[in-house]
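Before any further analysis, backbone shapes were mapped to integers, which produced the following:

***
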Amino acid sequence: MSPADPLTQDFELGFTYTRSTGPVVGRFLTGLRERRIEGVRASDGRVIVPPMEYDPDTAAALEDFVEVGQEGELVSWCWVSEPRAAHPFERPFAWGMIRLDGADVPMVHCIAADSEQDLVTGARVRASWVDEPRGHISDIRCFELVEGGAS
């Protein structure tokens, strides 16, 4: 081996434990199974989606659930021109930060668009659901652009 050859080692990362979803995330996932999106109200009044168990500023437990809209605003996005095997689509798509109507904190999800040129910050998007929801974040298949919808 020459000094220019890097050392390599195969490694498989794994987590050998399981964790229950708990009452907050569990309720969020149950809502998704029912095609409903819920957030939680923080101590300062902000609505956080997906919900968190504890307030990010005060560490107080959060229990005030709020149903938010199925539509929202595209706050920021990143185009994926060459999807990988683990991505949700085999064709180009975008990851987006989406602030749903009634929420104050944006969530990350995939955006189905025909091209990068179709996306603009401030565009309106709507949740598109799988045919048979099962209580998983992928129950929202993606978000799709709303016709003529810029905020």
